[in-house]
């Protein structure tokens, strides 16, 4: 459904960023053409869906209903009461089921385009599995009767696997859907602005702990670090403080997102990945658990958007795992060992953090910095930097015959490929990412060695640019190499402000 040329509401100042999402919702809700529309809004918990949808409803005089886990009878009663308040009439006494309720909801659009929002729709479907079919039938009745209806029904949900099933290819609602919108976390640049942090080093550290989830800013109130020296105290006063909501947020998040499925195995799997296990087999071996159970657990985490699995840049059949929610990575890499002994509750947070900080720097901040570098390549870098628009930016590994005894693989934190006109796409760049290390010419020499290894494996590296990404800076020798066009250098300032 493409929008007609009508006046749309200006995004309220209370909604941070989300410009594209607001424009899409406003265009859908304000479309004046005849015919009822159906929109779907998905996204994990705490990303601001409800705030955004309530703002849209308020701006356009729409109807909003927030579903809860309750019986069908209670949900229908609550919906009837909300509609009565909205229409300034008596609550309906004639509803026999969801068929009547859906007809009444859609009737709100008989006179004008109006957004009709049902938030946390999966909660209703759990109570009433036939509900999607009832909605499909209601739309069909409108079409069959030719009624001039402009209802704009928006169904929102946080349970991603359920939302995919409800609106997937096999769903009766699929053919009715005019808008599909997914609300994700703020990207790292948006998050820095949201937290009012100007120092890119501090912004990255805070993002490595709480990511881009808007709700976490509200959880801690005014307790925001003002400068880099405040970071340690901020961690101790928020995530490590039992009196703050963030203290147990990782546990609550996992419980809510996985719908209570074997949380012990999920926690252990995340701890294994945070400690360096990157494949399903490595996780199963680390846990001493059957591979089938581990695969099921990891699939659940991936379906809920908490885990990402992507192909290795140089060995596509090797799928590497990465925790996508920074708070979960922080919890399971740095804090998890102290949960079992209740040390966080019984000891001074500063003492615990002093022991944890080296682990945070190596196992959390370092990998997080590498991911931020890959995000920069895909979302912010000028295509001219790599000679073509990047199609992928991924971690890569390859055997290094020069290592004694066939030692560990050599790693490339940022391998950039162009459009896939071949099976794997042209290799545009290979890069090393070092969070807390000043990079020198020996890093460039290592990258050249990796390019030789790749060439020996048949990779075309003729136009591949070596790149160094550093959170600590570069020596004058490496800067001179950059000036001579031998290497691409990306520091924190460029990651947060440049292209």
UniProtKB/TrEMBL annotation:
PANTHER family: ATPASE (PTHR34704:SF2). SUPFAM superfamilies: P-loop containing nucleoside triphosphate hydrolases. This is ArsR family transcriptional regulator.
């Amino acid at each position: 459904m493409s929008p007609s040329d009508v006046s749309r509401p200006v995004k309220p100042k209370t909604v941070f960023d989300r410009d594209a999402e607001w424009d899409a919702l406003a265009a859908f809700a304000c479309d004046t053409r005849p015919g009822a529309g159906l929109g779907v809004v998905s996204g994990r918990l705490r990303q601001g869906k409800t705030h955004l949808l309530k703002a849209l409803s308020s701006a356009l005089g729409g109807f909003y209903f927030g579903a809860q886990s309750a019986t069908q009878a209670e949900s229908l009663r609550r919906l009837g009461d909300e509609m009565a308040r909205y229409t300034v009439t008596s609550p309906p006494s004639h509803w026999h089921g969801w068929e009547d309720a859906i007809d009444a909801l859609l009737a709100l659009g008989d006179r004008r385009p109006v957004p009709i929002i049902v938030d946390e729709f999966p909660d209703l479907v759990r109570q009433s599995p036939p509900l999607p079919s009832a909605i499909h039938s209601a739309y069909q009745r409108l079409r069959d009767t030719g009624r001039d209806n402009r209802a704009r029904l928006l169904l929102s949900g946080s349970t991603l696997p359920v939302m995919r099933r409800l609106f997937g290819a096999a769903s009766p609602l699929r053919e009715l859907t005019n808008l599909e919108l997914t609300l994700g976390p703020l990207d790292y640049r948006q998050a820095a602005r949201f937290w009012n942090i100007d120092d890119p080093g501090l912004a990255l550290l805070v993002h490595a702990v709480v990511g881009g989830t808007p709700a976490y800013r509200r959880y801690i109130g005014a307790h925001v670090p003002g400068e880099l020296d405040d970071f340690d105290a901020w961690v101790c006063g928020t995530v490590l403080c039992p009196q703050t909501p963030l203290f147990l947020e990782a546990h609550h998040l996992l419980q809510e997102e996985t719908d209570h499925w074997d949380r012990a195995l999920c926690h252990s799997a995340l701890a294994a990945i945070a400690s360096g296990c990157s494949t399903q087999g490595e996780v199963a071996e680390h846990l001493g658990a059957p591979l089938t159970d581990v695969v099921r657990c990891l699939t659940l985490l991936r379906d809920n958007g908490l885990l990402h699995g992507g192909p290795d840049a140089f060995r596509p059949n090797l799928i590497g795992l990465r925790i996508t929610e920074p708070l979960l990575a922080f919890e399971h890499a740095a804090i998890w060992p102290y949960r079992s002994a209740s040390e966080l509750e019984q000891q001074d947070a500063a003492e615990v953090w002093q022991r944890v900080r080296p682990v945070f720097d190596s196992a959390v901040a370092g990998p997080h910095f590498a991911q931020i570098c890959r995000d920069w390549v895909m979302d912010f870098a000028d295509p001219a930097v790599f000679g073509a628009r990047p199609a992928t930016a991924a971690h890569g590994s390859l055997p290094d015959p020069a290592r004694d005894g066939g030692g560990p693989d050599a790693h490339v934190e940022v391998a950039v490929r162009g459009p896939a006109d071949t099976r794997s796409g042209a290799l545009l760049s290979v890069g090393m990412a070092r969070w807390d290390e000043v990079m020198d010419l020996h890093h460039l020499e290592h990258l050249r060695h990796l390019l030789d290894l790749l060439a020996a494996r048949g990779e075309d590296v003729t136009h591949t640019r070596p790149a160094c990404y550093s959170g600590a800076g570069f020596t004058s020798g490496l800067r001179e190499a950059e000036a001579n066009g031998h290497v691409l250098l990306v520091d924190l300032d460029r990651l947060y402000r440049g292209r």
